[in-house]
Amino acid sequence: MEDPREDVKTVIQQLVCRPTLQQQAEALRTYFTPDVQFYHFYINIAGGRRDLTAIYQMAEFLFNYQAVKFHDIVYDEFANAVAVNMTVYIRPWLAFYTEHHNLVFFILLELENHIREDGKKVKLIKVQRDFFERSPSFLLLPFIGRAYNSVWLRVLLGHAIVIFVRSLRFVASVFFPDHM
């Protein structure tokens, strides 16, 4: 990448916007260092580009990536890192319904300077760290996922829990005033 803030969009799109397996592998060879490390909610690897290619291709088979929407991209030149807040839209093959799932997450890409064979200075991805807003496991469950992903339902549930606990404390203070 020559301009990490702009080029990172292309990298991510080549990895998750319905690529062929060959296109995905080529993107990994082009933009990642040979000894790349990958830290994810489910998987941590330090085996390099070959292992990361296997991980991305397995994910392509399982999750059927559809599209990506970028919310915010920040490039820190001093730290040589790019932070990306985005939503990836997937439609799992294993799901018997046609609902899309939105995985909102934050990616931190640590970069390393490299000089290509033509003498051009570029930045390659040395470490990828994925941080999810909500657990992807729960989001994929048919009915629980929709409730889990709803901010309104989670706020309502939080208030219900607070009311329940306050009620229990009040009842306990009536019956056991010396202990409260």
From TrEMBL:
Keywords of the record, alphabetical order, are: Membrane, Transmembrane, Transmembrane helix
Where is each SigF-like NTF2-like domain found? 1-169
Entry-linked InterPro entries:
NTF2-like_dom_sf, NTF2_SigF
Which Pfam families does this one have? NTF2_SigF
SUPFAM superfamilies to which the protein is assigned, alphabetical: NTF2-like (SSF54427)
Instruction: Show the stretches that span the lipid bilayer.
Output: 151-176
The name under which this protein is listed is: SigF-like NTF2-like domain-containing protein
